[in-house]
Each structure stands twice: as C-alpha cells, then as structure tokens.
Design goal:
Length: 485
Amino acid sequence: MRAILILFDSLSRHFLPPYGSEGIHAPSFAELGRRAVTFDNCHVGSMPCIPARRELHTGRYNFLHRSWGPLEPFDDSMPELLHKHGVHTHLSTDHYHYWEDGGATYHQRYSSYDLIRGQEGDKWKGEVSDPQPPEYRGFGMRQDWINRKYMQREEETSQHQTFEAGLEFIHTNHADDNWFLQIECFDPHPPFCAPERFLALYPEEYSGPHFDWPHYAPVSGDETPEMIAHMRRQYAALVSYCDYSLGRVMAAMEQYDMWDDTMLIVTTDHGFLLGEHGWWAFVRPPFYDEVARKPLLIHDPRSGHAGARNRQLVQMHDLPATLLDFFGAPLPADMQGVPLGATLADDSPVREAALFGVFGGHVNVTDGRHVYMHAPPDTNGPLYEYTLMPTHMKARFSVEECRSITLAPPFTFSKGVPVNRIEGKPFMVTPEAFGTLLYDLEADPKQEHPLQDADVKSRMQAHLVRLMRENDAPAEQYIRLGLTP
C-alpha cells in the first residue's frame, strides 16, 4: 500500500468546486470530488501553521499547552512511526517555517525530504542593497521582495519546484510498495503570487497600488471595494495554480495505475478571510467558519467510495491515525485522533464535538451545527507554556522569559517527563476584545447573528470542558477562562 498527502496552506473551502464555489477555475479539485469522499465538517484543531503540523504528527491537540513550537522529545511522530514500521516516508515542501527555530524538529522525522526555498520571508537570497518594490498596499517584507526577483518564471516558483520534487519521488518509486509521500505547499498562503497564465483566468480592470498581501488586521476604511475584489482575484489565481499542481499528481497516479492501491488525501491547515466579517487573514479575529472549517478530500482504495459526501466531525489529528491504520501500524496510546477508514466506508460517527483554538485565544467547540467560542471573562491570564524546546516561531525564548522557568509535573502525554513551565503570552490574539460568541450554523451560516440561548450555551460549554479534561488541560486554563474543571 502507498499513500500521498497533499497539504496546502490557507486554502479556503468556499473557493473549491466540491464545496460549491462559482467562478473559480479548479477542474482538478472538481475531478477529485468525483473520485474521493468530500468531508463537509472538517475543522481545524490547533492553530495556526506549525501547531497544526504538530497535530499532524502527534494526533492530539496542543494549543492549550503550547504556542508555536517544535516537536517535543516526548511527542510521537506519525512519519517516524511509519518509518519504524517499514514504510518509507518522504516530505517535499516549501513551507519555510520548518527551517526556522520554531519548526526545526519536524522534517527530520521523515525517511527523506526535499526543502524548496524562497517562500514569503524565507532567508534565501542574500542582497545587501535594499530592493526597490513598486508602490504597494498591505504587508511588505524586505526579504520577500528580494526572493521574488528569483522566481519570475513559473518553473522558478517554489510551488512548481515542490510538486516537481514530489513527482520525482512518484516517478522513481511508483513500482515499489510501502511508502508515504507528503507534498506540502505553502500556497495559497500570502503573498498571493501566481504566474500570469492563472491571473489571466480572472480578467479585471484595476489601477490601484500593488496589493497581494493583506495585513492580519481589519479591512481598513480606505481599502476600496475594487481593492478588495483585486485581492480576491489574486487569491483565486493562486488557488487555480494549486489546482493545476494537484492535477499533475492525479495524472501521475493515472499514468502508473495507482488509484486501486494508493490513498490520496488533500487538505489544508486552515482557511483565510478575504474581507468576510470585516477582516483579512486569520488568527487575530475569532475563528469564523471561513477559517475554522476546511476542505478535506480522501480517496481510500479500501472503501471504493467515489463522489460521496461525509458529514461527520473530523479534524487534522485524525489524519495521522488514519495513515498509521492504513499501513497496519499500531497507534500510540497518547493519540487522540480517530482512524477515518470506517467513516470513509459507511459514514459512521467519529466524534460528538470538536475542540479548536490558538494559544491564549478563544477556546472553541463545535458539534457540527453550533459553534461556541469561549473567551476569558476578564484579563487573559494566567497563561503558561509547557515545553522542553523553548523556541518561538523565529527565535529562541529570551533570557528574560527563561528566568520565569519552573519545573512542572508530567502531563499524561509527556511519558513521565516533567516539563518547563514558562510564563506565556497570547499568540497574536485578544479574545477578551470580542467576548464569548455562540452561532447556529444551520440558521446563520454566515455567522452574522450571535445566538442567545442559555440551554445551547450550557450544552456546548459542557462539551468544551469535557474535551479540555480529555486533553489534560493545565489548571490555569480553567482559571483564565472562568470555567470549572
């Protein structure tokens, strides 16, 4: 058996044909929808990028204990477990956060890997002189403007090279058995840089400033409707580029007759706000449905189901359990995810409720119909990080931060190992500014009218506390949130 996981970043489900998009050129996603099972209730777990990938390895939530950080010494790693089970695991990626301080222990868990350079602020090309960017609106990064100079042609882009590396692995190993390939593409994460032929799919008349990378902030009053439409056009073109790359992998599977014995999983870490709810991007506002509910399409050759839809609540941390189960490898005791083989076959239930959030932010729970976003009732604290690997996204913990270290007893998942307890800060969020929110997605799918229903709130809060207990949440999280364990 063989398995391929294609993981995009910041891919919004409502831009894809299997999820009802209109006006988006994505024929490969449409074809995959006819070949695979499309999940309608796949939710994020730990946010954003690297916390989500920790779930992909460990099969458990991590946002209540840790912000952005590496795999811990006590963490189980799905690709490493597969390797020990005799399955060759390979990673082809341009997700440059892996080679920053906060992600440096992930790619080493694979049997082999390709690292493709140049996305966003990747410290790739060295130029002493400052670049001369055009007049632009939104976010700009010196290193990004330098990197773009070296990716003028489509074949020079990191997305093309990432899929080229993944396809090389398929071409080399298609006749062999027992391998897992993860093709991980930073697109369509901003900046939204798509080759011209994909931009041409969405003609427009726009004369404003260069605008392809929004701030992680509210839509400002001087960003005109034309500018917002232009940004959405840039994103749509990049989604079409991702669709083309997906089609290349599907064509290779067809070429080598792999559909009968190869699992294909296509998903993302989270969605992206493009003006919805008056916001750009993700993390800072509450996790509205555009961000929290994400695409997941799985072709499982064991079930033979094609073109089916699945309404069960699933999350990122189910994928490592699914892959281990697919290859007959035992699941570690600490893994909370559920193998999806059974629900792929017969739509059987997976879980009653799903927990999700970001370190120091709202703690959210959904039962598939209602979404409850619980905020701190007062000040957002106390808050502590629990880690043996004191690094942030781009830097080590400072000496000042480390002075607050005390040793905490082991958690249920740390395999008897005590951990450092360090005073923490919320990751880019101020949940107390938005307050606690409750939505009925069936009656209010755009989440425009917060629900006031004490009975529903009580039931959803009970789900939330139960899942926090199952995750061995630190005691101060209940204090921070004003909850009783």
